[in-house]
Each structure stands twice: as structure tokens, then as C-alpha cells.
Amino acid sequence: MKPLLYLLFLFSTIVIGQQNSAFQNEVLALQMKYDTIWDVKKETIVFTGSSSIRMWKNLEAMFPDHQIVNTGFGGSQASDLLKYEQELILKFKPKMVFIYEGDNDIVSHKKPREIIGTTKQIISNIKKSGNDVQIILIAAKPSISRWGYKRTYKKLNRKFKKLARKESGVEYADVWSAMLDGKNVKQDIFLADKLHMNQKGYDLWFSVIAPFMNTKNTYSLK
């Protein structure tokens, strides 16, 4: 192997190894957290996926009538969720699962069809668990920092929506449209990094997600 190619291979191996290690640590931390607070006797709703889920700090407060388990892990892609599906979804025997993946996948130059293929595997595994689970695919969100990828995001979201129409027990939560101001993304719903959302952004998500919860919610948008 030529020296340059070897160095590139070695570097990529180190980066992937570090990322996998970081995910393992985060998944273990989530397991330890919910081992102490999760009530197996109560119906559970799992929210999982990348950092937009992980950083939803008041998720439980927004839906106080439900036992919410937030297993979001930052920087993840659909393939990572598939790898840790047992630890992050299946072990909780949920009645409902909200999934947010695809955002990081697109920036990592994965094709929408590849993301959909992985999502189908995730859905199939959930259905094989034997529970009558409702699965909600949350649309990949628009953001200021990744607006250059908007066409690919829109293509992915069309595929998510089509998948939800074809698959029984699967629905599509269109947060994309809620975060737009006309044809552009809203400017005041993000943190300083212009990628992750502030509370105003999560209030928009709440308005889209709440109807799927099938109960009256006490949280009010300010």
C-alpha cells in the first residue's frame, strides 16, 4: 500500500473507531440513566435519533401525561441507530417510537435511498418485537447552516412520507414545513451554531408532534 493511501486509511480507521467508542459510551450512559428511572409497568414512548432529539431538554415536561424515554445520541446516523436499536428502542417495549435520523446522513453524503433502506430495517426490527407499536418518522429539519443541502433533504422527506403511506403502523411528522417562513427557513429558531434549535424551535416541533400523542397536553406555547 502506498504511504499516502496507508495514512488516509489509518486516519479514517482512527476517526471511525473514536466515533464508535463515543456512541458506545453515550449509549451506556443512557442505559444507566433509564435503569434507575424507567418504570417497566407504564406504557412508554421512545424518542430517539440524533442531537435534535438529544438536546430536547424539556421533552418530558411537554408531555407530562406520558412516560417518555429520550435516547437521542448526538452525531448519529440511521446506521448507528440500527446498530444500537436493542439498547435504545426495543428494550423499553414502547407503544410508540419517534425517530429522527437522516440529518447527519445527508451531510455525510449518504443517498436518500440508502437512508430509507436502513430506516426500513429499523422499522422491520421494531415490528418483529411483537408489540403493536406506532412508529413516527420525523422529517429531516431545515437549518441555516445546512440550507445548501435543502434539495437533498426535501427528496429524503418525500421518501419518508411515501414510506409512511406504504407501511402499516408508520406515520410521518412534517416538522420541515413548520420551520419555514415562506420558502426560507425561519431565522429565530436556532442556537448560535445555526443548526440546533432553541426553545422556539422545539415549540414548533411540539405543535407537529402533539397530535400523534392521542391525549390532551397541558404544555402551552408561549
Description:
The protein has 222 residues and is α/β, with parallel strands linked by helices. The protein has ten helices and seven strands. It has helices at 3-37, 51-54, 59-62, 78-83, 85-88, 103-107, 112-128, 150-166, 175-178, 199-209; strands spanning 44-49, 67-72, 96-100, 134-138, 170-173, 180-181, 184-185. The radius of gyration is 18 Å and the shape is globular. Residues 1-17 form the signal peptide. Residues 57-204 form the SGNH hydrolase-type esterase domain. It comes from Arenibacter antarcticus.
**The first-level CATH class name of the largest domain:** Alpha Beta
Report the mean per-residue pLDDT as an integer: 90
Radius of gyration (Å): 18 Å
Content of β-strand: 5-15%
CATH architectural name of the largest domain: 3-Layer(aba) Sandwich
Topology as H/E string?
A: HEHHEHHEHHEHEHEEH
**Name of the CATH superfamily of the largest domain:** SGNH hydrolase
Which structural class fits the helix and strand makeup?
A: alpha/beta
Beta strands, count: 7
Instruction: Provide the number of structural domains.
Output: 2
Low-confidence stretches: 5-18
Helix content: 40-55%
Terminal CA distance reads: 60 Å
User: What name does CATH use for the topology of the largest domain?
Assistant: Rossmann fold
Largest sheet: 5 strands, parallel
The geometry reads as globular
The DSSP helix count reads 10
Strand order of the largest sheet: 2-1-3-4-5
InterPro entries: Ester_Hydrolysis_Enzymes (IPR051532), SGNH_hydro (IPR013830), SGNH_hydro_sf (IPR036514)
Keywords: Signal
Domain SGNH hydrolase-type esterase: 57-204
Signal peptide: 1-17
